[in-house]
């Protein structure tokens, strides 16, 4: 059996999440594997997807499967579940590429992803690959396969390709961003994926933890118009662009997944779903018209300043049961410095409005932003406890490649992780940024201690018990038993 291109979603969950990856984290369908596969299949290429994370396959097993397929090109796709995940996935991607090269030294490998776009030349120089991609990927994959199959390949003609021209790294101009998402980036290749292996986050199914499967993630837009200093979402796009799918296409995809695979639990992958009111309402109206939106459980990202009270009833009626809000910091000074100019009162009021509408809230908080001190990090934790969201994510500030923070860290000579796994929030070798007032170890320790303080808070546990029941409370108490090992803290005896 031979095939034109094999796209691989790398594994390595145990390196990224430690013991949390076994049961608590989500396993999501790989968005960009889907989008690239659909694009090239529509244009006549034969394509397969290997989701090694979902399958639980190690690098050797992946290499053996690639050998069976004997492709013209291997595409290692490292976009991740959220923008920050691209960098932390580089460890699993590198291990997979290395194993493939040991078995199939002559099959070319192209690596694609947000991290790759942010550091294209470095990626090509350091990783066990033949090519890298600067940009989204679909056009580059299609054109590269055509050149590899040509009698006289012309690599300079492949848009977005990063390649070796003898001893020199060449970076071709990126392909123009695809404008018609529904025609060209529909991602309707669900038949290529192990649909029975995907599962939702534990918190999305509080009150019914058995509903984590079946599960799928879909997108309604790409990119984000905002410029938060800690975010690298737009690295593959080279612009603060915001492109939307047609609402009817989104609704049709959800209906297909519901009717074909019985999926009722979904994630909306968009970096910012609740942004364009007309777009959001059209999707909600379409979902309501399906007649079964009361069975659906969606979660989506939003911002405190884009959620309007008059939107909430319709969001809930359409099946939106969770909204993740980027609150980031409890300190106004720190929020202002990170381009999140929000007032404390506004944050509390928006969260309460969402909860009154019957929608649960995930508060996302960051410790260790450039202006943070131990005192301002304590303000953030106290805000989280006061707001008392149904769930909370606590992050350490990371200088992800492609973000303003990364450029600042490089310019200032700040110490960055020595391995890409160090950019994972939950890894053993996690190494956040220091601030002007706190060391990296202080930031990490505060983050980890803050997590356990929040989830052991009697006020939080009582709220969860009342809202979701005793089984969910016991589940959270069992979750909070997991204490992550941290190399940085062990070395400092913290």
How is this structure best described in words?
With 494 residues, the chain is an alpha/beta fold. Helices cover 40% and strands 16% of the residues.
Observed structural traits:
15 strands; 21 helices; six-stranded parallel sheet; seven-stranded mixed sheet; alpha/beta; 494 residues; 16% strand
Strand content: 15-25%
Largest sheet: 7 strands, mixed
Unreliable segments (pLDDT under 50, ≥5 consecutive)? none
- Work out the number of β strands: 15
Q: What topology does this entry show?
A:
Blueprint lengths: L2 E7 L3 H5 L13 H12 L4 E5 H4 L3 H11 L1 E7 L7 H4 L1 H14 L5 E4 L1 H5 L1 H7 L4 E3 L4 H11 L12 E5 L2 E4 L9 H4 L30 E4 L2 E3 L18 E3 L2 H15 L3 E4 L8 H14 L6 E6 L6 H9 L2 E9 L3 H6 L6 H13 L3 E8 L6 H14 L3 E6 L7 H9 L27 H16 L2 H11 L1 H10 L7 H6 L2
Parallel strand pairs: 1-2, 1-3, 3-4, 4-5, 8-11, 11-12, 12-13, 13-14, 14-15
Antiparallel strand pairs: 5-6, 6-7, 9-10
Helix pairs in contact: 2-9, 4-6, 11-12, 12-13, 16-18, 19-20
Q: How would you briefly describe this protein structure?
A:
The chain has 494 residues and is of the alpha/beta class.
């Amino acid at each position: 059996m031979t095939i034109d291109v094999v796209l691989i979603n790398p594994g390595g969950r145990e390196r990224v999440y430690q013991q949390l990856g076994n049961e608590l984290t989500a396993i999501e369908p790989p968005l960009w594997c889907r989008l690239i596969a659909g694009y090239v299949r529509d244009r006549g290429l034969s394509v397969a997807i290997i989701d090694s994370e979902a399958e639980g396959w190690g690098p050797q097993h992946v290499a053996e499967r690639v050998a069976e397929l004997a492709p013209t090109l291997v595409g290692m796709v490292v976009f991740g579940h959220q923008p920050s995940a691209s960098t932390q996935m580089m460890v699993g991607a590198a291990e997979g590429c290395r194993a493939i090269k040991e078995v199939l030294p002559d099959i070319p490998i192209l690596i694609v992803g947000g991290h790759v776009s942010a550091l294209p030349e470095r990626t090509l120089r350091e990783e066990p690959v033949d090519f890298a991609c600067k940009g989204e990927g679909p056009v580059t994959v299609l054109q590269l396969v055509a050149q590899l199959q040509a009698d006289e390949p012309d690599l300079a003609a492949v848009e977005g390709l990063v390649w070796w021209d003898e001893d020199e790294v060449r970076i071709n101009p990126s392909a123009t961003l695809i404008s018609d998402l529904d025609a060209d980036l529909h991602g309707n290749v669900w038949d290529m994926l192990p649909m029975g292996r995907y599962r939702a986050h534990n918190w999305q199914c509080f009150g019914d933890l058995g509903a984590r499967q079946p599960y799928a993630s879909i997108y309604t837009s790409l990119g984000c118009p905002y410029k938060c200093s800690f975010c690298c979402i737009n690295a593959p796009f080279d612009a603060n662009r915001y492109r939307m799918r047609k609402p009817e296409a989104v609704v049709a995809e959800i209906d297909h997944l519901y009717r074909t695979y019985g999926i009722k639990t979904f994630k909306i992958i968009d970096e910012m779903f609740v942004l364009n009111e007309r777009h959001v309402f059209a999707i909600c109206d379409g979902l309501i018209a399906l007649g079964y939106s009361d069975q659906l459980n969606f979660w989506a990202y939003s911002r405190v300043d884009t959620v309007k009270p008059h939107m909430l009833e319709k969001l809930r009626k359409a099946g939106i049961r969770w909204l993740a809000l980027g609150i980031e910091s409890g300190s106004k000074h720190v929020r202002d410095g990170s381009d999140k100019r929000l007032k404390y009162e506004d944050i509390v009021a928006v969260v309460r409005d969402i909860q009154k509408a019957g929608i649960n809230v995930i508060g996302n908080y960051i410790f260790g932003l450039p202006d943070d001190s131990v005192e301002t990090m304590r303000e953030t934790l106290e805000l989280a406890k006061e707001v008392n969201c149904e769930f909370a994510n606590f992050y350490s500030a990371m200088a992800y490649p492609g973000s303003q923070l990364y450029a600042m860290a490089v310019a200032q000579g700040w110490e960055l992780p020595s391995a890409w796994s160090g950019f994972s929030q939950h890894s053993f070798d996690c190494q956040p940024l220091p601030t002007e007032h706190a060391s990296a170890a202080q930031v990490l320790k505060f983050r980890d201690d803050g997590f356990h303080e929040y989830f052991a808070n009697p006020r939080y546990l009582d709220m969860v018990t009342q809202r979701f029941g005793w089984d969910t409370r016991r589940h959270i108490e069992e979750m909070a038993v997991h204490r992550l090992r941290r190399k940085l803290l062990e070395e400092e005896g913290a």
